[in-house]
Amino acid sequence: MSYTPLPIGIDDFKKIRAKEYYYVDKTWLIKELLDKKGEVNLFTRPRRFGKTLNLSMLKYFFELPADGNDNKCLFEGLKIMSAGEKYTRELGRYPVISLTLKSAKQPDFGMAYASLVDDIAREYSRHESILLSEKISEADKEKFVRIRDRKGDRIEYAKSLLFLSQCLMTCYQSKVVILIDEYDVPLENAYYMGFYDQMSAFIRSLFESALKSNLFLEFAVITGCLRISKESIFTGLNNLKINSILNEEYEEYFGFVEDEVMKMLAFYQRLDKMDTVRKWYDGYLFGNTEVYNPWSVINYTEKLYLNENAFPVAAWSNTSSNSIVKDLIYHADESVKSELEILIGGKTIEKMVHEDITYEEIHDSEDNLWNFLLYTGYLKVIGIRLEGISRYVQLAIPNNEVLSIYENTIRNWFRDEIQLQDLSVLYAAMLTGKSEVFQQELNGQLQKCISYMDNQEAFYHGFLLGVLTNLKGYLVKSNREAGDGRYDICVRNQDETVSPVILELKVSRTFKEMETEAEKALAQIEEKKYDSWLPEEGYTESIRYGIAFFKKKCRVHMVRKALTEQ
Question: pTM of this prediction?
Answer without folding.
Answer: 0.87
